Amino acid sequence: MGETLNGAIDLDIDCEKKLSERTLSDLKARDLPDKTIRQMMKDLGNQRAKLYGWPNTYVFTKAMGEMFVAQLRGNLPVVIMRPTIVCSTIKEPFPGWVEGVRTIDSVAVTYGKGSLSFFPAGRYSVLDLIPADMFVNSMIVAMKAHINQASLTIYQVGSSYRNPVTFNELHDFHFRYFTKNPWSNRQGIPVKIGKGLVLSNLMIFQVILYMFHVMVKTMLMFVTRMGCYKLQHILYNLDKKLQVATKLVDLYKPYLFFKGIFVDTNTQRLIETARENGLDEDVFNFDPLSINWNDYFVNVHLPSIVKYLYMYSHIFAMVISSHLGLSSQT
């Protein structure tokens, strides 16, 4: 309770709670728009998180949640499961099951569409991943193992320690998959992708982004004075995209250049104990050593992401067509 990542000052959760409530109350009293209030509260959360050493509000509040659980559990048997990036299933209910496109998949799809030619990341940074069904299996086995044990146990459920996959390897998997199975654009023409430039130096990437931003702003001012409204609209949209890109870089920076490895000693012990007690690994497997990352990405994960997006786009087109009274072919 109260321990922080940077060790600079102790964390008082009650004070943080009062600060957020007081700030929200003051903002509402000023009769500000809801959108402005939401943004200011987000900014406050990120400021408080970084004060204690966490990169954003999301992980900061998760840490506070764990502190509360540890403090209030009494004699209850409590297990805290910490999954890393949860990706599509490797086996159950079927290989590649996924809901939506998130985190690394949004980058993968943008790359496959040919819209991403360079991106920032440490080439040898390890992306800590775990398929969704393997994480579910770990929860089920952990619950069974800790029945009637009045203790608190924390499990890191990931792959970075015993079966790491680097960003460089992921980049190679994606390049080979989309080269062999190219994405088709709206005209049905296959999209040819390049290897892509990986910028391991974040400062260089930010300078390039800044230069693009300044160039677009300058051109926008010029065409506005000239009255070129069509070009003005295009440049305005490009400027908005650059602003979003800047925010995304800031958001993902702590993960794309992360140097840490999460040791999963407790999870490894759980696997060994479960095996000794007759674990059916065909049903309840959660050992990251069993994952072949090349096979998983090329034959399971990426095909599922692409299929999901095509299906979603087709359904969306059908819904729009029905509302507009158009034929399905149209």
From TrEMBL:
Enzyme type, top EC level: oxidoreductase
Record field: transmembrane: 196-216
Source organism per UniProt: Spinacia oleracea
Keywords linked to the UniProt accession: Lipid biosynthesis, Lipid metabolism, Membrane, NADP, Oxidoreductase, Transmembrane, Transmembrane helix
E.C. code: 1.2.1.84
Protein family per UniProt: Belongs to the fatty acyl-CoA reductase family.
One Pfam family this sequence matches: Sterile
Catalytic reaction annotation: a long-chain fatty acyl-CoA + 2 NADPH + 2 H(+) = a long-chain primary fatty alcohol + 2 NADP(+) + CoA
Domain (Fatty acyl-CoA reductase C-terminal): residue spans on this chain: 212-309
Gene3D superfamilies: NAD(P)-binding Rossmann-like Domain
Job of this protein: Catalyzes the reduction of fatty acyl-CoA to fatty alcohols.
CDD domains, sorted: FAR_C
Coiled coil (UniProt feature): none
Name of protein: Fatty acyl-CoA reductase
Domain Thioester reductase (TE): 28-139
